[in-house]
Amino acid sequence: MNLPENPRIGIVGLGRMGANMARRLQDKGYCVSMIFDSNPEAASAAGLGCPIASTVAAVTQAADVIITVVTDDAAMRRIFFDHTDALLSGASGKSFINCATISPSLHQEIEAAARAVGASTLEACMASSITQAREGTLYLMCAGRRDVFETLQPILAALSTKCRYVGVSGKAAEVKALVNMVMNINTAGLAEGLGLGDALGIDLATLRAIFSETGANSRVLETDGEDMQNRDHVCFFSAAHAAKDSAIALSLAKQSGVALPLSAASHAQFARMVERGLGELDKSGVAELTFLGRSGD
């Protein structure tokens, strides 16, 4: 496949990640030719100064490369396979970079459907948050045809500081599920450690410092520990997404015959948050279930 010298880029999904990726691409001199969100107000609020499509098919027509950043399998099926309005309509020669955390099998299904109409796809799963999207420092795990990955390198490089090719279609989604599964276990475990420490009357700033200097250290301690203590749960990665991603990992484990008791337990915690209406809190909000006197049992 060949990429035009100055490719037009369309964005589907103008949430916190998609909007900031669009801003980053504009900063790097790319033409963001058209955007779409199922919530038109979100597309307008992004303030990108480019045309807002009323259909996803219009994005395909207006772009050479379409980046999708949607929430889940249902949203992904809707934009690719809807009978009346789909990204694959008139998609011959177009390339899709799909960044959503969805089921590996759906990435494979989309790749096959795209190939049937003369288009190409690449998974570009993100292990980063909103700040990294804006700064172009995403960590990307990519999968699909190797030649598609190589061709799209300039765009991927504009969005990321680390970009790994991990294999054929579906493999990036598998790796992303494992990354988030382990992150979610660490997050739930940290919330329990700090919650118990608080109940025992231990100074939490001291406890966090000791955690950082011992085997209790983790990246989650750095990003979420103080927020758990201070109940500052401004969303960078939501509890609802944590629940969704752990569920994907558990589904893969079931298919593979592998028991994951820790993943099951952490998934249950994030699912409880969603049930209690706390799903839009940052994942650090799982501490609300473990600290005495908060919303936990």
Detailed description of the structure:
This protein is an alpha/beta fold and 297 residues long. It folds into two domains: 8-169, Rossmann fold (3-Layer(aba) Sandwich), CATH 3.40.50; 174-289, N-(1-d-carboxylethyl)-l-norvaline Dehydrogenase, domain 2 (Orthogonal Bundle), CATH 1.10.1040. The protein has helices at residues 16-27, 40-45, 56-62, 73-81, 104-116, 130-135, 146-151, 153-159, 171-199, 204-212, 219-230, 239-256, 261-275, and strands at 8-12, 31-36, 65-68, 95-98, 120-126, 138-144, 160-167. The protein has a seven-stranded mixed sheet, sandwiched between helices. Strand 1 (8-12), helix 1 and strand 2 (31-36) form a beta-alpha-beta unit. The longest helix is centred in the middle third of the chain and has 29 residues, at 171-199. It is elongated and about 65 Å long.
In short:
The chain is of the alpha/beta class and 297 residues long. It has 13 helices and seven strands.
Notable characteristics:
Rossmann fold; N-(1-d-carboxylethyl)-l-norvaline Dehydrogenase, domain 2; 13 helices; 297 residues; alpha/beta; seven-stranded mixed sheet; elongated
